[in-house]
Amino acid sequence: MEYYEIIVNGHLDPRRADWFAGLEITQLSGGKSRLAGEVADQAALHGILNRVRDMGLQLLAVKRQD
Amino acid sequence: MANLLLKTKIHVPKPCPGLIGRKRLLERLDEGLLTGRPFALISAPAGYGKTTLVTNWLAGLDRAKAWLSLDELDNDPVRFFSYLIAALQTIDLKIGQETARLLSGSGLLPAPAVAVTLLNEILAASQPFVLVLDDFQEIKNETIFQAVQTLLDHHPYGLHLVMITREDPALSLPRLRVRNQLTEIRLNDLRFDLNESMDFFTASAGVKLKDEEVAALEARTEGWIAGLQLAALSLRGLAAEQAGQFIKGFSGHHRYIIDFLMEEVIKRTDPRIQNFLTRTAVLDRFNAELGDVLTGESNAKTIIAQLEQANLFLIPLDSEGRWYRYHHLFAQFLRTELRKSEQICLQQQAVHWFADNGLGEEGIKYALAAGSYDLAGDLLRSQAAQVFQRGEMVTLLEWLNLLPAEQVETNPEFVGYKAWSLFLLGKSEEAVHYLQRTEGINQENSDPLTAGRLLALRGWIANYREDPRTKEIALSAIEKLGGSDPFFLEIALLSLGHAQRKNDPMPESTATLYRAYDTARRAGHMFTGLGALLDITMNLVIQGERRESMKLCKLGLQEYADSQGKPLPMAELLYIPLGILQYEGNNLEEARDLLEQGIRASRPLGLNRILGGDAEQTLALIYWTLGDIQTAWDLLKEAKADTDAQAFPIIWDRYKAFEAHLLLKQGDLTGAMTWLESSTLTPADSITSFKEILYLVLARILFRIGRLEQAWELLNNLRQFDLAKGRKGRLVYVNVLSSVVLQAWGRQEEAISLMKEAVDFAAPEGYLRPFLGEGSEVRELLLAVQAAKPEFLTPLLGYFSDQSKHSDPKLISSLPASVMIEALTQRELEVLRLVAEGLSNEEIATQLYISLGTVKWHVKNIFGKLGVGSRTQAAAQARRWGLLKQGDL
Questions:
Q1: Per-residue exposure over B287-308, b if at least 16 CB sit within 10 Å of its own CB, e if not
Q2: Chain mean pLDDT for chain B
Q3: Which pLDDT score is estimated for B818?
Q4: Which class in CATH covers the domain with range B826-888?
Q5: Burial (CB count <10 Å: 0-12, 13-18, 19+), residue B499
Q6: How close A47 gets to chain B, by Cα (Å)?
Q7: For testing the chain B interface, which of A29, A52, A54, A60 should be mutated: the one with the most B CBs within 10 Å?
Q8: Which among B167, B224, B254 is the nearest to A56, CB-wise?
Q9: CA angle, corner B481, sides to B479 and B485, nearest 5?
Q10: Whole-number pLDDT of residue B728
């Protein structure tokens, strides 16, 4: 398991957590949202990024926590 | 197969009424088509109106069009190709017929063969057309990428490919850009600018807004069309003041646009409609019946009509108004409105409906998604045979992988499917391992059919791995299967035939292969049928049945041909045995052309290595005999470089021996001896089928260095071997060489007797090469037996004096041009248009300010690329493929 943090543009409803493999959704200032949590593997991470793509969200950052 | 395809996937969507025309983008698409660019890529995130743009463009386009909407299941190449063919057949029923025939046979097929066949069929299409692949981001499969890349690389002139995707595909886009073969429309092109937003709100949305209000909306959504459309929906029916407030609220918010706006829209819809929306959204597509099943009511038809009228992101998937889906963004929002458990419950209800309505495969998808494994397993049992026969191994394997391991391992049928899928997908180690691991579990509880299939599978894999138990396993598979499953019977028979070829008399192997061929023909399995035929013809070459083998080759070339009588790419492999047989009859030029054609056909199919190098070696011999020694060596070098010595040690050994053979022919005894010393062969070895040719080379060397006794001993071994195994096509070589050796040894009578035997055998079958390639001594021996068969020997002896004639390096006669076309350059297109207008080379030179020589050069290249021989043909071809368009405008 690896811990990832993904920042997207727009305030996401925390209800959406289900759709991002259970990542925790926090609304940040400046109209951004953070999705953070443990990701099973790289395939799971790409699944989440695809979801970001499919929702038309703008991807601002992806960071792995060491 | 066709009736099982979902028609909704190949339905060309209707243009959206009321949407503002996007002139600049439509013009760009037009320009790409008319300037002959083969490919248009529309790449942007969801909700930017990609599909709408292309649909509206198509509606105004006077050209045939095909559409394919992709989904994740299309990552199975066989399924992908089946749908692609179905889409293409909406234009021309002939396209893809042969490719579809190739696909029959349970996935046992190299993917490049499919791409090449389809490419040729597209080239033969009756009219130019546009093919749209929508939602291409769903495709992750490497094989499919390669096939699409092949299509683009060779771009057939009739085809204009439009790809709609949310992410750039793994194709070589930079190369296409550099060659100016790509029209690109991306996010920044698609977003609505301020003017378009204004037009949109006045024209389509029926809302009267102030300019600054539109500007605020445009800024907030950044021209994202889905956002603007939702905003228009939210504004519908609002008074000017309320509208102003709404826009202010929206602009001041940071919320994800879809969440914010959808809530506004949903808030204002009838609760019954809300209920319908959230429940039907759990499916990727639905119809009125399913709507009623999921809501437990009977008003779905009315609601669907209301939704369509309100323009609530409902997308019809066919022209009969039967199937629908929601816009992806909308569906995603709706799905968050329900709890996961509720969704699973709804999906389970849908599974039953799908199963009852003949859509079991769709049912499996939801049963697996909902985690209803018993239900999924039941459905799989009823569907697997069909999916398997269509060869959709990727799909089958994915389903089996989603089921709990124990459920699969305790079902012998599933085990068979899983092992076969693994094997075909290139994971043979894993397949063997899987079969071994599950062997014990399934032995008791499997019926003869299932047991037979498993055994056939084991036999096939054993043969592939050169396992000595192949024969035994294949035989018990055949016994268990009886006549119950032709495909697995073919597999078992082919394995048995290969195993018999190694150790048993050749006629036994050939008889088994004939059985495989007949079974495959009756079942309509093209790949296994052709494979068996190829094996039979190669067997007959060795058995010395030259005439029968030639007959079969010609028959196969006719049987496996397209509607114009052109052999299919796979069938072109038959040119290889045919070429070898022509070589045996000393028809050297013809043999050379056939072999080159056969080798060329085998390359894109990835099969050149499997055939063991016979084609390349015979071709090199032909060049050598024709006096082109350099080409012979170049060919050999190239073929060797192509052979992986580690993976195919036997083929490698044969190349090394052949090299020594050529050195010996050149008189380089030292070179030949070097090979002999490095090899581990001795005259006393027991002979095997595949190594026979090596020993023949050894015998030649022993003879040339004067070790006559050893040579004779070895040749006698070979003779006994060939007699025992029915290898008369080889025996004739052994006889001729033996005869030469015996004569040198002074055993004249025996020499003449063996030569006579060779002649008696060779005459009716027309074998000439065994006599012509063995040196000048043969001539004297033939003269001694001439009285016996003058009608055969007189012309044969004539060839000896002709040998010098063959040594002239001649120009290679031109081969029929392959239909695979290379792209014409811009300049070649210009020249072609002028040729079509009837201008002479001089006139073209003047008009284009280039030299006469350059024009001639271009014309020659154009003819080559178009596969034509005259200016009139070139013009006709150009018209057929729409290459003259620009000139016409």
A1: bbebbbbbbeeeebeebbebbe
A2: 85
A3: 32
A4: mainly alpha
A5: buried
A6: 12
A7: A54
A8: B224
A9: 150
A10: 94
Tell whether A40 lies on the interface with B, counting CB pairs under 8 A: no
CA B269 to chain centre: 50
Min Cα distance B384 → chain A (Å) is: 27
Q: What is the pLDDT of residue B817?
A: 31
Structure tokens at B91: 């234009």
What's the half-sphere exposure (Cβ side, CA atoms, 13 Å) at B90? Answer: 21
At a CB cut-off of 8 Å and minimum separation 6, what does B754 contact? B735, B736, B738, B739, B742
Give, in order, the Cα–Cα distances in Å from B735 to each of B504, B747, B793: 21, 14, 16
Which of A10, A18, A57 faces B254 most closely, judged by CB atoms? A10
Class of domain B2-190: alpha beta
Mean pLDDT of B701-724: 91
How far apart CA B183 and CA B40 sit, in angstroms, is 4
In whole angstroms, give the CA distance from residue B282 to residue B334.
Answer: 8
| Domain ranges (residues) in chain B | 2-190, 194-267, 404-490, 698-806, 826-888
Copy the structure tokens of residue B487.
């495909």
Partner B contacted by A56 (CB < 8 A): yes
**How many CB atoms are closer than 10 A to CB A19?**
19
Binary contact (A54, B253; C-beta < 8 A):
no
Three-state SS annotation for B254-272: CECHHHHHHHHHHHCCCHH
pLDDT band at B108 (very low <50, low <70, confident <90, very high): low
Q: Does A53 touch chain B (CB under 8 A)?
A: yes
The count of other CB atoms within 10 Å of the CB of residue B90 is 18
CA B665 distance to own-chain centroid: 41
Q: Assign B137 to helix, strand or coil.
A: helix
Residues in chain A: 66
User: What does the pLDDT profile of chain A (66 residues) look like in tens digits?
Assistant: 889 999 999 898 887 787 788 899 999 988 899 999 999 889 889 989 988 888 888 999 999 987
Give the tokens for residue B630: 């350099």
Burial level of B518, CB count in 10 A (0-12/13-18/19+)? Answer: middle
Confidence band for B540, pLDDT divided at 50, 70 and 90: very high
Work out how many CB contacts closer than 8 A connect A with B: 52
The rounded distance, in Å, linking the Cα atoms of B338 and B341 is 8
Q: Structure tokens of B366? A: 């939801």
Whether the model pTM is above 0.80: no
Q: Is B403's pLDDT higher than 80?
A: yes
Tally of CB atoms within 10 A around B540: 25
